[in-house]
Amino acid sequence: MPKSDIEIAQAATMQRIAQVAREKLGISDEHLVPYGHHKAKLSLEYIETLKDRPDGKLILVTAINPTPAGEGKTTTTVGLGDALNHIGKKAIIALREPSLGPVFGVKGGAAGGGYAQVVPMEDINLHFTGDFNAIGLANNLLAALIDNHIHHGNELGIDIRRIQWKRVVDMNDRSLRDITIALGGTANGYPREDGFDIVVASEVMAIFCLATSLKDLKERLGNIIVAYTRDQKPVRARDLKVHGAMTVLLKDALAPNLVQTLENNPAFIHGGPFANIAHGCNSVIATQTALKLADYVVTEAGFGADLGAEKFVDIKCRKSGLRPSAVVIVATVRALKYHGGADLKVINTENLAALEKGIANLERHVHNVTKNYGMPCVVSINHFIHDTEAEHALLRDKLSILGVPVVLARHWADGGKGAADVAREVVKLCDAPNSFSFVYEDNDPLWEKMKKITSKIYGAADITADNKIRNQIKKLQEDGYGHYPICVAKTQYSFSTDAQLRGAPSGHILNIREVRLAAGAEFIVMVCGDVMTMPGLPKVPSAEVIDLDDSGKVVGLF
User: Fold this and answer.
1) Is 73 part of the annotated catalytic residue set?
2) Which of 2, 75, 112, 219 is deepest in the core (most CB within 10 A)?
3) Active-site entry in 268, 303, 312, 447
4) Is 229 among the residues known to form the active site?
5) Catalytic residue among 128, 208, 312, 384
6) For 364-430, where are the E strands, in sequence order?
7) Which contiguous run of DSSP H or E holds residue 259?
8) Of 24, 39, 73, 292, which is the active-site residue?
9) Is the pTM higher than 0.85?
10) What is the C-alpha to C-alpha distance for residues 65 and 360, in angstroms, rounded to an integer?
């Protein structure tokens, strides 16, 4: 019986992280802040000394729309990083940290799988170095000071009906989506409606991942709009004099976390916003630092290329100046058959008709990457033992029409050497013509930006919104936020807002349900469909099987 991911990870021979840093990156011990033997933070002071070094090549890993059949985007990111090192290149991977909500829910962790993992896997998927705790505390400190300010006289004149800021917890807990606080009398403050988001949906998380320094972090935190007065004037975090204390809580967390792969290659894992309700990328600081330390940096964007990659391009790249040299689009034969209408019960049976139909999903992602984002790409197919040669041949034939190579990868079973062919193709692509472009321009009106995303990337016919939402968007435009990029929050499972519409639907209408201003992160969130910023747990959550055995080992963690 094949070993589980956690069994493979626990059997790994890890090097001390100081040895990995010294031998692979040339970083001496004094620049590391160790968290035990196998994980450390790289000091911000050392990162400052790297600014004059040339940048390596940035490789973005993205995927088709996720399915229950599985794709393996993070596994491919790790496997590709190991593969580049395997063929003699100096490479680092840069990933997001997992949220505890999915870890104890249904999606799983974010450490890869099989023989393409980052370790220590249990630590990474659980509390790690405490970054998410710091982000949650900073968020909730701001929430506490809002209510405290109102309780002690409300000098700023906050309208308690127009408080925008929510509390957060890093767990899927649907019961906290909409609550009433401050019950029990005058000593407990003013009762009002409130709610919780999951930590990864917090604007503090988005700011954390976009900030380039502690100074930048503090300024962005101060710019957060938490509420409005009765005459519609914004109240910011700096008006409550809390952004300094928030920065103090985050000062250690802002330093990137360094760990290793199963093959003892370096990996930065830092920050973790969701891509269906946030911008879905690891921290700018970690990515920029990795580019100074290696010739190739492999990073990923959350979910499919319609959500994560679009935000990587239009938010992260726009704000940071980062430019990928190549893109890897991850798919599996199983997942493509699912997009073609195949039932999960027979997903392992050869079905060329379903595969051909499902390839439409992959083709649209390829089109988006090559035409709308303007970057060269390769399709990496995660190999499953039930795949057939006829299915692989059909994939190659269909994609050849688009001029995109299709490469089979076996990193899940064979580690870095199993993705060597993908690595060689990526190295070639990094020197190919690159006409990187954004989906919309800074000076496009907000409504037009949203229309361009939905028509170009999602294949939608139009967008709609009720009068209240349209007026909010109009006011944001008039108030000077029209140059901000758009962060679309919608289901990750479809190009539409209907999670059941597989493949490549077109001609659909996207309704904008809610608009949020993230003035510190400097983007506008447009919530579409029924997506939630506080997920719920499934009927049988992963928490039911996660445990400690009699020897103190974690079991059941994937």
Assistant:
1) yes
2) 112
3) 303
4) no
5) 384
6) 377-382, 406-409
7) strand 257-261
8) 73
9) yes
10) 11
pLDDT, residue 278, reads: 84
The two tokens of residue 516 are: 């949020």
Is there a catalytic annotation at residue 502? no
Please determine, for residue 107, whether its predicted confidence score (pLDDT) is greater than 60.
no
- Asked whether 364 and 459 are in contact (CB, 8 A), the reply is yes
Measure Cα distances from 525 to 183, 187, 515 in Å. Answer: 31, 35, 6
pLDDT at 156 over 60: yes
The active-site residue out of 107, 319, 323, 474 is 107
Query: What does the block give as tokens for 259?
Result: 């760990």
Length of the chain: 558
> What is the DSSP code string of 338-373?
HHTT--GGGTTS--HHHHHHHHHHHHHHHHIIIIIS
Q: Which one from 104, 165, 274, 412 is the annotated catalytic residue?
A: 412
Q: Is 75 a catalytic residue?
A: yes
Instruction: Please compute the mean of the pLDDT values over residues 479-498 and round it to a whole number.
Output: 96
Tokens describing residue 178: 């909409």
Evaluate whether 219 touches 522 at the Cβ level (below 8 Å). Answer: no
CB-CB contact of 57 with 297 (8 Å): yes
Active-site residue, 96 included: yes
DSSP string, 18-34: HHHHHHHH---GGGEEE
For residues 191 and 499, give the distance between their C-alpha atoms in angstroms, rounded to a whole number. 37
How many Å apart are CA 208 and CA 249, to the nearest integer?
12
Catalytic residue flag (residue 384):
yes
